[in-house]
Amino acid sequence: MTALTLLLTRPRPQCAPWLARLAELGVTAAALPLIEILPARDAAPVTAAWAALAAVDLAFFVSPNAVEQFFAHADRPWPARALAACVGPGSAQALAAQGVPAGQIVQPAADAASLDSEHLWACLAPRRDWAGARVLLLRGDGGRDWLAERLRTAGARVEAVTVYHRAGPRFGAAEQALLAAARAEPLRFVWLFSSAEAVGHLRGLGLIDQRAIATHPRIADAARAAGFAPVVLARPAPEAVTEALKAL
Predict the structure, then answer these.
(1) What residues of the chain score a pLDDT lower than 50?
(2) Same domain, residue pair 105 and 29
(3) Which of 39, 193, 197, 234 would you call most buried, defined as having the most Cβ atoms within 10 angstroms of its Cβ?
(4) Are 112 and 144 contained in the same domain?
């Protein structure tokens, strides 16, 4: 039987470490980024956020992209007062790599049922009284506001700052060939989705009989709605994805 190739659809900067770890785990994988990450169209709010960071109680990073793009404007060390929150291990690793102390990084428990805003809030809620707290929501242009609304309900002052811009995929010749191969021989490939938006970029491309792994139930629902089947869930870590791939 021909080995399956796992198609990584994460933004381009995140693919290299995943490819390296999956290779160590014996997984054949290739990058087919479905979202392009670009700097924010207006950098002024990002630099203003850095200037005010010493007075911030919590900065919530929605993804590793948010970490990378926010720290691209860094002009000072991470302040001792501010917590840095995120929902996934990739973002936590990116924060640590940027020098944020481990004791100031808040993320869902390793054994949480899902890595999302709901399980992050379960960690944040008991840490303090959030009334009057100043919070930065560091994200792309748009996105889910569940945690921001929860914090506002608790009395926090939440400011959303767009630190990067998302665009559709820009495939080179090799990536176009990879997409054509997946369309022609679907049983050779399995898609890995970490974003419902990425799934949306595949609509209308004539993909049938495609299998997928999704890192959250909402993403899995989007993949099924787009015609992928079967779709299995896995935590957003190479080891968990490897086990899901074996199950397929």
Answers:
(1) 1
(2) no
(3) 193
(4) yes
